[in-house]
Design goal:
elongated, transmembrane helix, mainly alpha, 5 helices, 0% strand
Length: 115
């Protein structure tokens, strides 16, 4: 279960990086692309510890952040071309990651004495 969560997280990060580089406008320079990429990646990297150690509150917060990313991907679905294709794939992988987070949180112990 934990490897499923970690794999989904890394896959979403990789897909976000690849999609940003591939769909960047041709007039964009590398520093501009790196700024956009850092704005997208840094909030997700804040949850690295929560994903690797399977912490419930961190995973629940990650699902809320993923909903924001899904909103931007939904807007990109109407762009057309390669950007539309990457947006649809990002939506599918983000949904997959939300399900993985929910399943991981559900498997954690609850109540008094839960660590």
């Amino acid at each position: 279960m934990l490897s499923f969560l970690r794999t989904s997280y890394v896959l979403f990060l990789a897909l976000l990086c690849i999609g940003t580089f591939v769909t960047a406008p041709t007039a964009s320079t590398l520093p501009n692309i790196l700024v956009i990429l850092s704005i997208q990646i840094i909030p997700l990297l804040a949850f690295f510890k929560a994903v690797w150690q399977k912490q419930s509150y961190g995973l629940l917060t990650l699902t809320l952040l993923l909903l924001v990313y899904m909103g931007f991907s939904t807007m990109n679905c109407f762009a057309g071309g390669l950007k539309q294709l990457f947006a649809i794939v990002e939506l599918v992988v983000a949904t997959w990651l939300i399900l993985a987070c929910s399943k991981a949180v559900k498997s954690l112990p609850r109540g008094h004495g839960a660590t």
